[in-house]
């Protein structure tokens, strides 16, 4: 069993490293918590909250093309129970350059709002508490 103190890193490639890092910092209130340059041909930026046990890593491999998301159902989902905070966060996503899109899975349109980044990856802001 993985320890409760384990840290989750979700990593994915991008052709738009600086733009993606800025979008996620501005849209989700993250901050850059690390970065690297030309590490065995890779550049990368880690964003998140220093006190949280999860963060996102965006990488770019020199000479490679990452392309766009493979499907419209590649999602990061954040649950925001307080309506005022949810509305403010949705506005922040739009201001950061995310595009509001209909969800591939209609469940998310009924329970939140879906946003797409410049690479076609999607973030759902669910307007409810997370429940098992």
Write the topology of this structure:
Elements: E1 8-13, H1 17-28, E2 31-39, E3 42-48, E4 54-61, E5 75-79, H2 83-95, E6 99-101, H3 106-110, E7 112-116, E8 122-126
Parallel strand pairs: 1-4, 5-8
Antiparallel strand pairs: 2-3, 3-4, 6-7, 7-8
Helix pairs in contact: 1-2
Please provide a brief summary of the model:
With 132 residues, the chain is of the alpha/beta class. It is 23% helix and 36% strand. It has helices spanning 17-28, 83-95, 106-110; strands at residues 8-13, 31-39, 42-48, 54-61, 75-79, 99-101, 112-116, 122-126.
How can the largest sheet be summarized?
4 strands, mixed
Distance between the termini: 19 Å
Give the overall average pLDDT.
96
What general form does the structure show? globular
In the sheet with the most strands, the strands line up as 1-4-3-2
Rg from alpha-carbon coordinates: 15 Å
Residue runs with pLDDT of under 50 for 5 or more positions = none
The helix/strand class is alpha/beta
User: Based on DSSP secondary structure assignment, what is the total number of beta strands?
Assistant: 8
Give the ordered list of helices and strands: EHEEEEHEHEE
Strand content: 35-45%
């Amino acid at each position: 069993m993985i320890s409760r103190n384990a840290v989750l890193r979700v990593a994915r490639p991008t052709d738009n490293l600086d733009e993606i890092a800025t979008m996620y910092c501005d849209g989700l209130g993250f901050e850059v918590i690390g970065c690297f340059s030309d590490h065995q041909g890779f550049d990368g930026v880690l964003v998140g909250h220093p006190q949280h046990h999860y963060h996102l890593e965006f990488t770019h491999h020199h000479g490679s093309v990452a392309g766009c998301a493979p499907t419209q159902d590649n999602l990061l989902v954040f649950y925001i129970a307080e309506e005022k905070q949810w509305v403010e966060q949705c506005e922040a996503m739009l201001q950061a350059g995310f595009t509001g899109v209909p969800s591939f899975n209609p469940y998310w349109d009924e329970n939140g709002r879906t946003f797409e980044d410049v690479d076609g990856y999607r973030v759902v802001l669910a307007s409810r508490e997370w429940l098992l």
